[in-house]
Amino acid sequence: MACVMDGNGRWAAQRSLPRTAGHRAAETTVIDVIEAARSAGVGWLSLFAFSTENWRRPDSEIAFLMCLVRRVIRKHAPLLHARGIRCRFLGMTDPRIPPELAGDIADLMTLTARNRQMTLTVAFDHGGRRDIVEAARSLIRSGVLAEAVTEETFAAHLPFSDTPDVDLVIRTSGEQRISNFMLWQVAYAEWVFPQVLWPDFRAPDFLQCLEAYRRRERRFGGVLPNQNGGTQA
């Protein structure tokens, strides 16, 4: 499963607060959703926290986000480790990322590397197109012949290549965009777009989205057999 955590700025604007207040309020949601996913038996959870395009935001907002992420990591690392959650960060290539934050992220990944209860991937400084370009470069550097390139060999050169395809993406706030998020992995994902803004999103909302997914019939471009022995589109 994956979540595009959208609506922090609008949540703050509705309350006549600075955008940073929305980011701060989102911390509770992040922990609530992680706990809900783990309790529901979700083995892989990805959260879209900061995109390659988010660097275009005001410097003051970016600086706040960097400090906030560092504080959240330091505060919740013991809980995540105790829950058996392996933490990974997808992206993290831009030199503008503060070295102190990069160090805390590296420490968290090392601390939780052997955990297997759930894998939490935080997409931070992430861009789906960039990942695909980097995979293509890796194939070329490896000397793989064009005729030998398959979906499987290509996927093996993506970052965290052991990550399975995403089954369900939840994008809060009602917006309906992919936003350059894990483009390869979400190719056949189901999407749910709850209207609730991310800082107000809680475990019951998460479970409601999960139930909506369970009611869907996944066809992957094919057809399903009907009760009369034929197929239905």
UniProtKB/TrEMBL annotation:
<feature type="binding site">
    <location>
        <begin position="51"/>
        <end position="53"/>
    </location>
    <ligand>
        <name>substrate</name>
    </ligand>
</feature>
<keyword id="KW-0460">Magnesium</keyword>
<keyword id="KW-0808">Transferase</keyword>
<feature type="binding site">
    <location>
        <position position="23"/>
    </location>
    <ligand>
        <name>substrate</name>
    </ligand>
</feature>
<feature type="binding site">
    <location>
        <begin position="7"/>
        <end position="10"/>
    </location>
    <ligand>
        <name>substrate</name>
    </ligand>
</feature>
<comment type="subunit">
    <text>Homodimer.</text>
</comment>
<dbReference type="InterPro" id="IPR001441">
    <property type="entry name" value="UPP_synth-like"/>
</dbReference>
<comment type="function">
    <text>Catalyzes the condensation of isopentenyl diphosphate (IPP) with allylic pyrophosphates generating different type of terpenoids.</text>
</comment>
<keyword id="KW-0479">Metal-binding</keyword>
<dbReference type="InterPro" id="IPR036424">
    <property type="entry name" value="UPP_synth-like_sf"/>
</dbReference>
<dbReference type="Pfam" id="PF01255">
    <property type="entry name" value="Prenyltransf"/>
</dbReference>
<feature type="binding site">
    <location>
        <position position="190"/>
    </location>
    <ligand>
        <name>Mg(2+)</name>
    </ligand>
</feature>
<feature type="binding site">
    <location>
        <position position="171"/>
    </location>
    <ligand>
        <name>substrate</name>
    </ligand>
</feature>
<protein>
    <recommendedName>
        <fullName>Isoprenyl transferase</fullName>
        <ecNumber>2.5.1.-</ecNumber>
    </recommendedName>
</protein>
<feature type="active site" description="Proton acceptor">
    <location>
        <position position="54"/>
    </location>
</feature>
<feature type="binding site">
    <location>
        <position position="6"/>
    </location>
    <ligand>
        <name>Mg(2+)</name>
    </ligand>
</feature>
<comment type="similarity">
    <text>Belongs to the UPP synthase family.</text>
</comment>
<feature type="active site">
    <location>
        <position position="6"/>
    </location>
</feature>
<dbReference type="InterPro" id="IPR018520">
    <property type="entry name" value="UPP_synth-like_CS"/>
</dbReference>
<feature type="binding site">
    <location>
        <position position="55"/>
    </location>
    <ligand>
        <name>substrate</name>
    </ligand>
</feature>
<feature type="binding site">
    <location>
        <position position="11"/>
    </location>
    <ligand>
        <name>substrate</name>
    </ligand>
</feature>
<feature type="binding site">
    <location>
        <position position="19"/>
    </location>
    <ligand>
        <name>substrate</name>
    </ligand>
</feature>
<feature type="binding site">
    <location>
        <position position="57"/>
    </location>
    <ligand>
        <name>substrate</name>
    </ligand>
</feature>
<feature type="binding site">
    <location>
        <begin position="177"/>
        <end position="179"/>
    </location>
    <ligand>
        <name>substrate</name>
    </ligand>
</feature>
